[in-house]
Structure to design on (166 residues):
């Protein structure tokens, strides 16, 4: 069995922000875990120093890892944090955090009762309230769900409630 070790120069990292200028990825850290949203922290540099950071916040982002010009991994999410760092002679440093849109549910705590509703409908309500695409609920529609007489969310963050039901 032959094993090859990839050198760092074979890999290219690219961040795409539809409303932003081209950035060079200086460093990144991707944290993933079971039953929890990923978090991608990026150190970036750019020739442009006067970027309107508010335009980038909550916008879509795609981070691509390519090897020999071919995408190996793509991470899709939204920009949840973006800040400007030091400005040098030609470049300015930036820091960004990319997370899945689902993290929006972690911003609100709620108490409510859902009556005579099936679980997929409750989850869709949570996603719709935070403008998150409900396409990920397709797997829940594959099997039949009975309506619950009632389902209670009491002083619980929407994300924790979502994870409890999903």
């Amino acid at each position: 069995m032959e094993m090859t070790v990839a050198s760092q120069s074979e890999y290219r990292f690219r961040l795409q922000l539809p409303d932003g200028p081209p950035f060079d990825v200086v460093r990144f850290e991707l944290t993933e875990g079971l039953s929890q949203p990923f978090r991608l922290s990026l150190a970036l540099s750019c020739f442009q120093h006067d970027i309107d950071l508010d335009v980038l916040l909550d916008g879509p982002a795609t981070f691509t890892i390519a090897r020999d010009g071919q995408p190996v991994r793509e991470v899709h999410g939204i920009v949840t944090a973006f800040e400007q760092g030091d400005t040098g002679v030609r470049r300015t440093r930036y820091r960004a955090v990319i997370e899945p849109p689902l993290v929006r549910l972690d911003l609100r705590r709620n108490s409510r009762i859902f009556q005579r509703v099936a679980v997929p409908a409750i989850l869709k309500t949570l996603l719709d309230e935070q403008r998150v695409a409900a396409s990920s609920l397709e797997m829940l529609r594959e099997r039949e769900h009975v309506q619950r007489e009632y389902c209670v969310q009491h002083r619980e963050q929407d994300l924790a409630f979502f994870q409890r039901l999903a």
Remarks:
- The first helix runs from residue 53 to 56.
